[in-house]
Amino acid sequence: MKSCPYPSGLEKAYVSSVVLDERDGKMVVIKRIDKRAREIERLFHNTLRARKLPAMTAVIKKEELWLDYISNAKTLGENLTKHMVKRVGAAVADMHKISVPAVFIFTDGVDIKFKKWSDFIKETIVYGSERQNKRHGFDKKTTLAIIKQLSAFNFNEPVNPVLLHGDLHSDNILIANDEIYIFDPAYWVIGGDPFYDLALLAINLNDELLSAFIEGYGYD
Question: CA-CA distance, 24 to 133, in Å (whole number)?
């Protein structure tokens, strides 16, 4: 079994344990993640595939998740051009055209729990502030100021909840064979307001690239 040092872009995206190995006669990327994360990632790829959008084959084998190994692939972070970011905008728009019945998450990898969007956002704010404190990111005063500002907003329930990625940034978007693969979704949410994804990506793009993304995504 090998680690994943190959120029596939995958090693830049995954925080979880990732190895590359031959299984059933082909090379696959193997992720060792908890049950909930395995189920969510499989559901995410299967949902994209059902809509005929580029997606990896995701297979659960006991406590492992097997994904396609795509050779010579690069992440968007390695190819940040206006042309490519515009194409990614169109790909994200296609993903956001997939409607889901309501805001929901997996609780244990199998059971689905429906949530109010406002409750999810509040929980996300708390979780984010705790991570900042543990990682010595923002100082406590800044974190509390951000929480205060965000808590003042009224986060309305999305009228038309859509499939979300939940952790959309340039290293979770893979470019290969003229296709764009959105992968490695968050394990804490599946459906909700598309602006959640858009905000995550926007903070990592400069004005020029953000304009290109919006042009590809559309204004509707």
Answer: 44
Shared-domain flag, residues 16 and 123? no
- Cα-trace Rg, the chain: 18
Q: Are residues 82 and 27 in the same domain?
A: yes
Residues 48 and 14 in one domain: yes
- Does residue 194 share a domain with residue 87? yes
Residue ranges of the chain with per-residue pLDDT less than 70: 1-16, 104-112, 135-137, 220
pLDDT value for 37: 87
Burial of residue 190 (CB within 10 Å: 0-12, 13-18, 19+) is buried
Identify which of 201, 197, 198, 199 has the alpha carbon closest to the alpha carbon of residue 189: 197
- Looking at the fold, whether 140 and 50 belong to one and the same domain comes out as no
User: What's the number of domains the chain is made of?
Assistant: 2
Residue 9: its pLDDT value, please?
Answer: 53
Which are the contacts of 99, defined by CB distance < 8 A and separation ≥ 6? 160, 161, 162, 163
What pLDDT, on the 0 to 100 scale, is given for residue 93? 97
> Could you tell me if 27 and 121 lie in one domain?
no
pLDDT in tens, 39-56: 889 999 999 999 999 999
